[in-house]
C-alpha cells in the first residue's frame, strides 16, 4: 500500500473544491428533476391512460368529467386530460396516516398474532 502525505492547507483546499463540486452536482441534479417534473405536467393523457393511472372504470371517468371534477379537452371526439389534473386527483384523495391509528393497529395486530 502506498501512503501519500500532504500539508494540512493543501488538504483543506482539496476538500473545499470537492464540496463545491458536490454542491454543483446537487444543483444540476435538482434542475434536471425540476425540468422533468415540469415536462410531465404538460403531458396530455387519453381516457385509457387516465383510467389505468387512477385505477377506475371508463364509466367513473365519465362521471368525473360530467361533474367537472377533472379538467379535460375534447379534440375530434377524443377526450384528453392533463397529467397535472390527474396528479391533483391522486394527491387530493390520499389519506394521511394518523400516528394514533397506526399505534392502535399495531396493538391489535400484536394481540391477535
Characterise the protein shown here.
This protein has 113 residues and is mostly helical. The chain folds into 2 domains: 1-41; 44-113, Multidrug-efflux Transporter Regulator, Chain: A, Domain 2 (Orthogonal Bundle). 66% of the residues lie in helices and 10% in strands. The protein has 5 helices and 3 strands. It has a 3-stranded antiparallel β-sheet with strand order 1-3-2. Strand 2 (73-75) and strand 3 (78-82) form a beta hairpin. The longest helix has 34 residues, at 8-41.
List the helices and strands and how they pair.
Layout: H1 8-41, E1 44-46, H2 47-54, H3 58-66, E2 73-75, E3 78-82, H4 83-92, H5 99-112
Antiparallel strand pairs: 1-3, 2-3
Characteristic key phrases:
single chain, 113 residues, mainly alpha, Multidrug-efflux Transporter Regulator, Chain: A, Domain 2, three-stranded antiparallel beta sheet, 10% strand
How many beta strands in the DSSP annotation? 3
Q: Please give the order of strands in the largest beta sheet.
A: 1-3-2
Low-confidence stretches: none
Write the CATH fold name of the largest domain. Multidrug-efflux Transporter Regulator, Chain: A, Domain 2
Q: Number of helix segments?
A: 5
Share of β-strand residues: 5-15%
* CATH architecture designation of the largest domain: Orthogonal Bundle
The averaged pLDDT comes out at: 81
Helix content: 55-70%
Structural class: mainly alpha
Characterize the largest beta sheet: strand count, sense, and whether it forms a barrel: 3 strands, antiparallel
Could you say how many structural domains there are in total?
2
Could you tell me the radius of gyration in angstroms? 26 Å
CATH class call of the largest domain: Mainly Alpha
* Element order: H for helix, E for strand: HEHHEEHH
Silhouette: flat
Separation of the first and last Cα atoms: 55 Å
